[in-house]
Amino acid sequence: MTAPAGATAAATLSPTPALQVRDLVVRYGSGRKARRTAPAIDGVSFDIAPGETVGLVGESGSGKSTIGKAVLGLQPPTSGTVRVHGQDITRMSLKQRSRQVADLRVVFQDPYSSLNPARTIGQTLVEPLALMGTKGDTAWQKARRGLESVGLPGEAVDRYPSQFSGGQRQRIAIARALVCDPKVVVLDEPVSALDLSTQAQVLNLLADLRDQRGLSFLFIAHDLGVVRFLSQRTVVLYRGQIMETGPVEAVSQAPRHPYTVALTSAAPVPRPAEQAARRAAREALGMGTAGAAAASATGCPFVPRCPLATDVCAEQRPPLRLIDDNLTACHHAERVPAL
Ligand SMILES: Nc1ncnc2c1ncn2[C@@H]1O[C@H](COP(=O)(O)OP(=O)(O)OP(=O)(O)O)[C@@H](O)[C@H]1O
Ligand code: SF4
Ligand SMILES: [Mg+2]
Fold it and tell me: Of which family is this protein a member (predicted)?
């Protein structure tokens, strides 16, 4: 079954999604050269329902952060729309967003560069509140409560970022993101810079906060294992296009797209038998590695690496089709061996 024209890459679980991205195209640069090069994001659509986490995965350079930046207004889209609870914010300036859009916030990867070292934690936390009109004691009380909600003492408002570890700084960044009570949070690799045990603590904290507050997350990660922990659905991105999307277990356990097979077999899993099965599936496909080979401008972007590629793959961009539980953009998805 082919997804209907304009269909989302994911089931809409609510009449008004918390976040809706439609036909997003992002080109970096300007002028003729920019128009000749492939866009960083090429026609991406997905929804996130209230309270839902969607994991966005793909290898480095696939465009994950570009989607996050377009959603946040940090990179203007070439075309397409971004809506938060139905409100079209695609062309809203950062200044307008900071005053009018309390519902959308972000946590970045690097806890060292994302906090201003010259400001106390309290100053960092009250700033977004002031922009939304909450000032004085009320703002400082909210800042203290925000720190407590991420497992830090309220009196940490008087300290500076340098007095905290990486994991603690990431908790502070989460407190800053949540202090205005947003409903949608973009998490761009929020645990990638942390050691493994701190990663687990921060992921657990994010899951608890999401469940307590009914938050929606766009959760960006390289690692499918991390995505599986936090997400209900996942979107697999390659060269700025969605290759596959569906329930996270279905996509990671029963991928229908050759690229997802490559990605899942590369991600370490704790069970050796499962890991061996994945490696065997990847070898059976004879998968190439990420290379500089140019993607086909008209067809599937995975052609240069795909062992199943035929002429039609180079000629026609495969639409997303429902195969079992997943929407898959592959002409030959039925030939992909089961993991
Ligand atoms: N500011 C920029 N100017 C020009 N090209 C850019 C810019 N930022 C990203 N790109 C290009 O856009 C593409 C997508 O980059 P992006 O950072 O979104 O990927 P990513 O999936 O987040 O990668 P990573 O996993 O390494 O963070 C890449 O080809 C990258 O080189
Ligand atoms: S459409 Fe063709 S090239 Fe693309 S992933 Fe499927 S088989 Fe491979
Ligand atoms: Mg990135």
Answer: Belongs to the ABC transporter superfamily.
